[in-house]
Amino acid sequence: MAPLQKRALYSLVIGLVLTLGFIAVLVAQGDVTAFENDANLRYIMYAVVVGVPLCYGILVTPIMRKPRLVDERDKRIIEKSSRAQWLAVIFTLVAWTIGLTEVYYDRGQVPVSFLTLIFFSILIVSTLAQSIGILIGYSRLERDV
Amino acid sequence: MSKVTNRIRRLRFDHNEMTQEELAARAGCTRQTIIALEQGKYVPSIELAFRVAKAFKVPLEEVFQYQD
Prior knowledge:
The structure holds two protein chains of two kinds. Chain A is built from five helices and no strands. By secondary structure, chain A is mainly alpha-helical. The mean pLDDT of chain B is 91.
């Protein structure tokens, strides 16, 4: 298994755990708007929102520069997987836009806690889509050529 | 099936049974890419093809062939 393939598998597992954790927090809170009332939870969210992309940048960027870990074949797969990632993000945004518009149309405003929720869902969907895209990319590359 | 074939496995054997890991290090790629190349499951870029040939110290066409 290629190093990038292993990382994609780990990312997929981490992404799934993140998703489950996120759903558990939502269920425990009972309501999305509960985020607004719990200051501690909000600060934890901010830390994660800033921390995750920062960690990604710090951990992933040096790996991408090492030819013995990620070479041209891996980069080709990453490029293809980013198309799946982009599509998944767009579909998630479309779902949020239509859903929130329909639910809150009469009120004319959307609760501010949805901003964090949208960010988290995009982060999770993006991570999962890229991991799945990379794993599919490897299996296709080995099958097709 | 790809029209580009190669003699990497043979050349490795001829070069003191060079390991895939060693060739990968010399060519600047991963061992998995060498495996994929040997199995004909991946067609390399021109640059990687040259690097592989250079690792064996032979001309490019001795490593890769194009089948019409």
